[in-house]
Design goal:
This protein is an alpha/beta fold. Among the domains are: about 200 residues, Rossmann fold (3-Layer(aba) Sandwich), CATH 3.40.50; about 200 residues, NAD(P)-binding Rossmann-like Domain (Rossmann fold, 3-Layer(aba) Sandwich). About 40% of the residues lie in helices and about 10% in strands. The protein is built from 24 helices and 16 strands. It has a seven-stranded mixed sheet, with helices on both faces. Strands 2-4-3-5-6 form a five-stranded parallel sheet. A two-stranded parallel sheet has the order 1-16. It starts with a helix and ends in a 6-residue tail after the last strand. One of its GO terms (molecular function) is NAD binding. It holds the Pfam family malic. InterPro entries: Aminoacid_DH-like_N_sf, Malic_enzyme_CS, Malic_N_dom, Malic_N_dom_sf, Malic_NAD-bd, Malic_OxRdtase, NAD(P)-bd_dom_sf. Belongs to the malic enzymes family.
């Protein structure tokens, strides 16, 4: 097993010198270049005399970060650091993980993306714009030639964090978490942005925005995306292709189109579904019930809501041996038309959620739309899930009504950022007399139970599981990501829940423990891929734990030797 100490002894042969190496974030060490390296790479007169350790650099950078007085300014500082010194960036994040993930990811990254065109400083990733599609292969190869790429994160930015259409930014942030939390080498990742226009008039009329046209849809859109996917399959057949923040009309459809032909993963559908399932599995571990005993009301039937529903349904089929039809009956979905029921008609029910449609015979007295309170009163759900981005939708009346019908109501207001959450956990805790088992999509402070004890609000953050799923697939060279691989990941994460030891503790591990969680998830996924016979490696399932640890990238400088024929 390759230890951290052994990785620190690595020797890299680098051909960049002078200004070129200082401007390359992969190789730049800043003031950590040794005297020998400074002489070899022509840096003696370019740096202050003192040689700093990585510890000293991290402390200085953290002090500088603390001088920024708002989250968006801290986000900008971290982005600038990533563009200068990759090792320092990731090591600073690693040391202050819980504090800084909300800065580089949800919720602050949402504000950065909303203002991306005005915050732009430097090119990052691959920009594929619709009118330039004739040069797509040339542009793609320009980025990947001579590189080993394990991970590609791509987005068309239609559904970023509830913001709506916005050009670029999320792919790079998502990719960074794969490296930070799971250990995928950042030099082996590629962030891709599809600029296919926007339907947001304010953005399109912004003089600094990218391609100021209406969003491309239909056949032209499909052909554009397919052209890219076929390039990935042709040139990077063993890579993981991560779809991020595609709109409701495209997310599930694209996943279904390609998931049997390549290792494809959609975090909004599968990642959200997986981490929510793990959270629920921990909760039913507290209540000593089965998954199939639950009654689920899902408020918000977009990509996230559908993904959560499908993931829980599939787990019921696997774990409790229910048929698909029987499992579907455990769900009541609501969208902008209210409860998804037959009389809405096919024009108001998206194809992906039709199998969860409730019969009108269940609602003989309903006149028109059936709202959330009506559903809660009739169904008496054991689990209430929110992914609607409708702030305050879980009203006091709704929460109290739910609490009447169950000893420990499981309430998961998952919308983010935090200002869009369906209910503030402290309110839900008060309205249920401290009975609720809760998790949220963004970080919230602990709340007091009636007994005076703090109740820790679990953060149902995809980052607890998706990097490990991806790394497990990459390390095992899986030809695809199967439902059983994802369920193996959720089982492993759920087994780490603090609530299983103390029912008043959090339903999921703390975000500070995300690297440990994702290591376990990656091992579980690799083991499952080998067991299913879809892995492309020649090692055995029993070796997965050692192989994952051995291949994890860590933010360590190593020793540089100048070589005109070396890397980069």
């Amino acid at each position: 097993m390759a230890s951290t100490a052994a990785k620190a002894q690595q020797v890299f042969r680098v051909r960049l010198r002078g200004e070129a190496i200082l401007n390359n974030p992969r190789w730049n060490k800043g003031t950590a270049f040794t005297m020998e390296e400074r002489k070899a790479f022509g840096l003696t007169g370019r740096l202050p005399f003192r040689v700093n350790t990585l510890d000293e650099q991290c402390q200085r950078a953290y002090d500088q970060l603390q001088m920024r007085d708002t989250p968006i300014r801290k986000n900008s500082f971290m982005q600038s650091m990533k563009e200068q010194n990759r090792v320092l960036y990731f090591e600073l994040l690693r040391r202050h993980l819980k504090e800084l993930i909300p800065i580089i990811y949800t919720p602050t990254e949402g504000d950065a993306i909303a203002n991306y065109s005005h915050l732009y400083r430097r090119s990052e990733g691959l920009y594929l714009t619709f009118p330039n599609q004739d040069s797509m292969e040339e542009d793609f190869l320009e980025q990947v030639k001579g590189r080993n790429v394990d991970l590609i994160v791509c987005s068309d930015a239609e559904a970023i964090l509830g913001i709506g259409d916005q050009g670029v930014g999320i792919s790079a942030a998502k990719s960074a978490l794969y490296s930070l939390i799971a250990g995928i080498d950042p030099s082996r990742t590629l962030a891709v942005i599809f600029d296919v226009g926007t339907d947001n008039d304010d953005i399109r009329n912004d003089d600094l925005y990218g391609w100021p046209e209406k969003r491309v849809r239909g056949k032209e859109y499909d052909e554009f995306i397919d052209k890219f996917v076929q390039l990935v399959r042709k040139h990077l057949p063993h890579s993981l292709l991560h779809f991020e923040d595609f709109g409701t009309a495209n997310a599930q459809r694209l996943l279904d189109t390609y998931r049997d032909h390549h290792a494809v993963f959609n975090d909004d559908i599968q990642g959200t579904g997986a981490v929510t399932l793990a959270c629920i599995m921990a909760a039913i571990g507290v209540t000593k019930t089965k998954l199939s005993d639950q009654r689920f009301v899902v408020y918000g039937a977009g990509s996230a809501g559908h993904g959560i529903t499908a993931q829980i349904r599939d787990a019921m089929m696997t774990m409790d041996n229910l048929s698909r039809e029987e499992a579907n009956k455990r769900f009541w979905l609501l969208d902008r038309f209210g409860l998804v029921k037959e009389s809405l008609g096919p024009e108001k029910i998206r194809e992906g959620i039709r199998e969860f449609t409730r019969p009108d015979s269940e609602w003989p007295d309903a006149k028109g739309e059936v709202g959330l309170l009506d559903v809660v009163k009739k169904v008496k759900p054991t689990v209430l899930i929110g992914c609607s981005t409708k702030a305050g939708a879980f009203t006091e009346e709704v929460v109290k009504e739910m609490a009447k019908g169950v000893d420990r109501p499981i309430i998961l207001p998952l919308s983010n950022p935090s200002r869009l959450v369906e209910v503030d956990p402290k309110d839900a805790n008060q309205w249920t007399g401290g009975k609720a088992l809760m998790a949220t999509g963004s970080p919230f402070p602990a709340t007091k139970n009636p007994n005076g004890k703090d109740y820790i609000i679990a953060e149902c953050n995809n980052a607890l599981i998706y990097p490990g799923i991806g790394f497990g697939a990459v390390i095992s060279k899986a030809r695809k990501i199967t439902d059983s691989m994802i369920i193996a990941a959720t089982r492993r994460l759920a087994s780490l829940a603090p609530a299983l030891k103390d029912p008043d503790d959090a339903l999921l591990p703390d975000m500070a423990d995300a690297p440990k969680c994702n290591y376990e998830v990656a091992v579980a996924v690799a083991e499952q891929a080998i067991e299913e016979g879809i892995a492309g490696v020649d090692w055995k399932k029993e070796e997965a734990r050692e192989k994952v640890r051995e291949k994890q990238w860590e933010p360590i400088y190593g020793t540089y030797v100048y070589d005109p024929e070396g890397d980069e």
